[in-house]
Amino acid sequence: MGVGDKCRRTCGTIDTYVRSDLFGYYKIVLDFLGDNMRISKKIKIGNTFLGGDSPILVQSMLNVPASDIENSVKQAVELEKAGCQIIRFAIPNEDALALIEPIKEATTVPLVADIHFDYKLALGAAEIGIDKIRINPGNIGSDDRVKAVADICNQKNIPIRIGVNSGSLEKHILAKYGSPTPEAMVESALYHAGLLEKFDFDNIVISIKSSNVNTMIKAYELAAERCDYPLHLGVTEAGTERMGIIKSAIGIGSLLAHGIGDTIRVSLTDSPIKEVYAAFDILKALGLKNDSPYLISCPTCGRTKIDLVGLAKQVEERLRDCKKPIKVAVMGCIVNGPGEAKEADIGIAGGDGCGLIFKKGEILRKVPENELLDELMKEIDKL
Q1: Who has the most CB within 10 Å: 107, 115, 254, 341?
Q2: 12: containing domain
Q3: For the segment 285-299, what is each residue's pLDDT rounded down to a tens digit?
Q4: Same-domain check for residues 27 and 90
Q5: Distances (CA, A) of 155 to 46, 263, 301, 351, 367
């Protein structure tokens, strides 16, 4: 019999490892497709693709006032530099449509216009050249308005994201379920999708967000069963940096681990740059992003005799822009160093005012504590 089998989605690529026996091969593939991966509809957004076999895309949203074009453009450029793959911004009024062209000129990633209630803003954004529109058709009025939006988006191949939050459900759905249950949220999302489908529009992305992690997870699981539209994952109103990242990692990570989700946003009451970094860290932790360093470090103990906490933070920051798919270990002592971290491509093991640089479990040399960071980075540069 062959080695163990593994099928996984890694940044849009399905790597399949199969047994030598045919029965084992089909069993693994069927189990994988049935239990661990949802094949969603593939759609085009600007110059990239979402859903299907595409990579899981990271997105964020500008938090600069829509009236401040200069700083909106500046923040969009910073987001793209941080790796953001889709950028969304609010279009609260007609004047805000002026944001679209300068941001498109300054960036290369797909842009999303976030619109509520006013269908004319959606029409205007589409005419100017927006790549995607976030709007709920049930909130914009009569069928002729929904049709107008569906028609122009069909003509220009602009996807529409339907965004349902637990705090914004329709009255008739709330009356039916009594509260924003996962079932209620999914029914709301599919209600909005149905309004677009009535006019032959199915270029749709769906998000179903709640600030309650358990509700959010269950809602997306139900949605994954009931439609094949790409799913935008997120925990809404997640909070400030610490708790927001924890809630998002649990909610988004749980779904991605089961093959559900096509794009993600970590919503923080903080800089959107931190949202992007946190989202990529979630992907890295799940093995869904392998084009940058993966840092492991021990929690320290009474054996540690160097400033490992400070050192680990410095290493993490120095690796921020590194694009090498390597595992880097920062360990407090010889016990957790070349031994337990021997699978790391490169690493540090602390000593008494000094440390060991090791590579694949083999000790390279002993270095004074104040030189550890620079010596480690020199070795990383060689890899």
Answers
A1: 115
A2: 6-36
A3: 999 988 899 999 999
A4: no
A5: 14, 24, 62, 65, 64
